[in-house]
Design goal:
Structural class: alpha/beta
Strand order of the largest sheet: 3-2-1-4-5-6-7
Number of strands: 13
Number of helices: 16
Distance between the termini: 15 Å
Number of domains: 2
CATH class of the largest domain: Alpha Beta
Strand content: 15-25%
Low-confidence stretches: none
Length: about 400
C-alpha cells in the first residue's frame, strides 16, 4: 500500500506524545507499506534524526513552521473559524507540499495526524482518509480551563468550545478516525467511524527490572516538562503531596525526568534537596528501572498517558490520579494504585514504599497487562486493519 502520511511535527526525536506515536507507526508500517511523509519542521532547518525517519519512508518532505506571536495566534484562530491550534498549522507552503506529493505519486490512502492537520484533507475525498486524533483535545482544553487563571482561562475556554465542535465535524468529514481511549471517544460522540487505537510500548526499550535491584525511597515522574498537564500535575505534587510523604519518610527523593523543564518546576524544586530535575535524559527507562515508585499526579489532560504504560512495562509500581490513568485499562490494587486527594496520594505512595510484596505483585501484573494489550505491534496491526476497511469502503 502507498500511504501519504501527514504530521504537524517531525517525528524525531520522539520527545512528545504525537511524535512517539508517529515514530512507531512509521517504524512498523514501513515493514509492509511504502510511505511518503510530509511534516512540519518546527526547528527551522534540517530536522535532527532525519536519516532515521528517511529509513522508514520512500520520501520525506519537510515544511518550515513559522512561529507567530500569541496575539497573531489568537487573531488567526478567530479569523479562520478553526480552533487556535488548528489555525496555527495552516500554511500555504504545507498545502503546496501536499498537492505536489499527490501530483507526483499515486497513493492508496492518506493518514493525517491530529485535528491540527485536518483541514488539508477535510474537503478532499479523492483518497480514503484516516485521521489519528490521538486525544480528545476538547477534553484537554476543558480541563485546562478549569485549572487556569488569567487570560489563559478565557483562551482555554474558547479552544474547548471550538475544538469540541471541530472534532465532531472531522468525524463527519473523514472516512475513519482513531482515538487512544474509550473515554475520549465518548467525549467526542458515538460516531461509527471513530475507533479506539491505543498507545503502545516498545518492550525491548523498557525492560522489566525486579524490585530488589531498585533504589529505596526513590520516586519518579517522567514526561515532557513543557506540556501543561505535566507541569500542572508535578506542581500539585510538590506543593501538596510531597511534604506529606517527607513527614513520614525524610529520606524520600523525587526525580522529575523529562525534556525542557518549565521554570515553574525549577523554581519549586530549587530549595528542596530531595527533588532532582534532570532535564532531557537519553533513556527514561533507566530512571524508571531505578525507582521504587512512579507517580502520575495529573490534574488535567486527556487521552492515554505513555508514562503509565512505560512504568508498568519496567515493573515500576505506580500511584496515579484518575486523570493520570487516562485511557489505560488498569485496575486499582491489581495493576497500580489510584488516589484522589493529596493525603490519599501520599498514603498510597508511602504504602508502596514500605510494602515490598505489594510492589512485587503490582509490578508483575502491570507488566503482564502491557505485554497483552499495549505493544506497538498490536496497535499498528489494528491501524492496518482500519486502513483495509477504509480502502474497501471506497
Amino acid at each position: 500500500m502507498n500511504i501519504l502520511f501527514l504530521t504537524p511535527r517531525f517525528p524525531y526525536p520522539p520527545f512528545k506524545g504525537d511524535q512517539v506515536r508517529a515514530y512507531h507507526q512509521l517504524r512498523l508500517l514501513s515493514q509492509r507499506h511504502h510511505i511518503t511523509l510530509v511534516a512540519f519542521d518546527d526547528v527551522g532547518g534540517h530536522a535532527p534524526g532525519a536519516e532515521i525517519i528517511q529509513s522508514f519512508c520512500q520520501r520525506v518532505v519537510t515544511v518550515p513552521l513559522k512561529h507567530i506571536s500569541m496575539i497573531g495566534w489568537f487573531l488567526r484562530g478567530v479569523m479562520s473559524g478553526y480552533p487556535f491550534q488548528t489555525a496555527l498549522f495552516q500554511s500555504r507552503a504545507m498545502r503546496d507540499a501536499v498537492q505536489s506529493a499527490l501530483a507526483q505519486q499515486k497513493f492508496d490512502l492518506v493518514h493525517v495526524q491530529l485535528a491540527r492537520m485536518a483541514p488539508y484533507f477535510e474537503n478532499d475525498a479523492r483518497l480514503p482518509r484516516v485521521i489519528d486524533l490521538i486525544d480528545a483535545l476538547s477534553v484537554n482544553m476543558h480541563r485546562r480551563h478549569q485549572q487556569e487563571r488569567g487570560p489563559m482561562w478565557l483562551a482555554a475556554w474558547l479552544e474547548w468550545r471550538n475544538m469540541q465542535r471541530y472534532e465532531r465535524h472531522i468525524c463527519q468529514r473523514y472516512d475513519h478516525a482513531t482515538i487512544v481511549s474509550a473515554s475520549d471517544r465518548a467525549a467526542i460522540g458515538n460516531f461509527a467511524n471513530l475507533h479506539v487505537n491505543a498507545n503502545g510500548v516498545e518492550l525491548d526499550h523498557f525492560p522489566f527490572v525486579s524490585q530488589h535491584e531498585r533504589e529505596p525511597n526513590m520516586l519518579v515522574f517522567s514526561g515532557n516538562m513543557r506540556y501543561f498537564p505535566n507541569v500542572n500535575g508535578v506542581a500539585w505534587f510538590i506543593q501538596h503531596v510531597f511534604p506529606l510523604i517527607k513527614q513520614q519518610n525524610p529520606a524520600v527523593r523525587f526525580y522529575i525526568v523529562g525534556t525542557d523543564p518549565h521554570p515553574q518546576i525549577a523554581h519549586l524544586a530549587q530549595n528542596d534537596p530531595n527533588i532532582v530535575v534532570t532535564g532531557h535524559v537519553e533513556r527514561v527507562a533507566d530512571y524508571l528501572g531505578r525507582a521504587s515508585v512512579a507517580v502520575m499526579p495529573m490534574q488535567a489532560g486527556s487521552g492515554m498517558q505513555f508514562k503509565v504504560i512505560e512504568a508498568m512495562a519496567c515493573g515500576t509500581p505506580a500511584v496515579v490520579t484518575p486523570f493520570g490513568i487516562g485511557g489505560v485499562d488498569a485496575a486499582h490494587d491489581q495493576h497500580l494504585l489510584i488516589a484522589h486527594t493529596p493525603s490519599e496520594f501520599a498514603a498510597q505512595v508511602q504504602r508502596l514504599l514500605t510494602d515490598a510484596p505489594l510492589r512485587t505483585r503490582l509490578a508483575a501484573q502491570g507488566r503482564r497487562l502491557v505485554e497483552t494489550h499495549y505493544t506497538w505491534e498490536r496497535c499498528v496491526e489494528a491501524l492496518e486493519a482500519l486502513y483495509v476497511q477504509a480502502l474497501n469502503s471506497k
